[in-house]
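4.2 Preliminary Data

To establish feasibility before requesting continued support, the project team ran the inverse folding procedure on a target of 214 residues. The structure was first converted into the token representation described in Section 3, and no sequence information of any kind was made available to the design step. The complete token record follows.
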């Protein structure tokens, strides 16, 4: 399979359609093509956790991380999201790129863990940041992801929550490694945003099970 360069991946991801009417309660902020490409390229090239792997994308929205994983040669990438409207856009996106190694499931991510324990090699996600109406949702998503993954979870989290997340990782006895520090450019998707966009510092974190006994 032809290796995609970072710029090439980003340019393809720029063609992925986004939320038409983002829902505030679900914290639907699009993952920008630049962030998605950096995240996936690092997971793929540095850790080899995408190609030929079974990958889950939690809170997949319109599917940019799933589509990028499929482009990088995932054996299968399955996106999970509660929102039918987002999944409809995801489905259109997957069809436009003619990707066959991709699937999507409508469900509440919070109820997934018991049904999908250790069924994926890798879990990738840009979870809700757990602000406003969704306090703690980032940790809930992370807990589910760690139950689903066999090898590693790659997740975006606000840098300001790093200590709190490290505390949780220690509590759950998983190895946590900040592998990139990124700036997340949030567009003014909602009426209460006063600026046209706002920069948030985010960490791309790898969680793995190296500390766990066999």
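Position-by-position output of the design step:
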């Amino acid at each position: 399979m032809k290796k995609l360069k970072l710029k090439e991946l980003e340019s393809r991801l720029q063609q992925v359609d986004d939320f038409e009417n983002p829902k505030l309660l679900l914290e639907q902020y699009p993952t920008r093509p630049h962030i998605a490409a950096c995240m996936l390229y690092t997971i793929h090239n540095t850790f080899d956790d995408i190609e030929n792997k079974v990958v889950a994308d939690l809170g997949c929205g319109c599917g940019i991380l799933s589509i990028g994983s499929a482009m990088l040669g995932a054996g299968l990438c399955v996106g999970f999201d509660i929102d039918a409207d987002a999944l409809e856009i995801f489905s259109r996106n997957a069809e436009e790129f003619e990707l066959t190694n991709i699937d999507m499931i409508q469900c509440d991510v919070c109820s997934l863990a018991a049904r999908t324990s250790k069924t994926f090699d890798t879990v990738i996600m840009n979870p809700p940041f757990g602000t406003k109406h969704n306090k703690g949702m980032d940790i809930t998503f992370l807990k589910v992801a760690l139950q689903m993954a066999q090898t590693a979870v790659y997740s975006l989290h606000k840098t300001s929550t790093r200590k709190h997340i490290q505390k949780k990782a220690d509590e759950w006895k998983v190895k946590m490694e900040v592998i990139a520090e990124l700036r997340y450019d949030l567009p003014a998707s909602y009426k209460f945003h006063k600026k046209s966009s706002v920069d948030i510092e985010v960490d791309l974190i790898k969680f793995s099970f190296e500390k766990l006994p066999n």
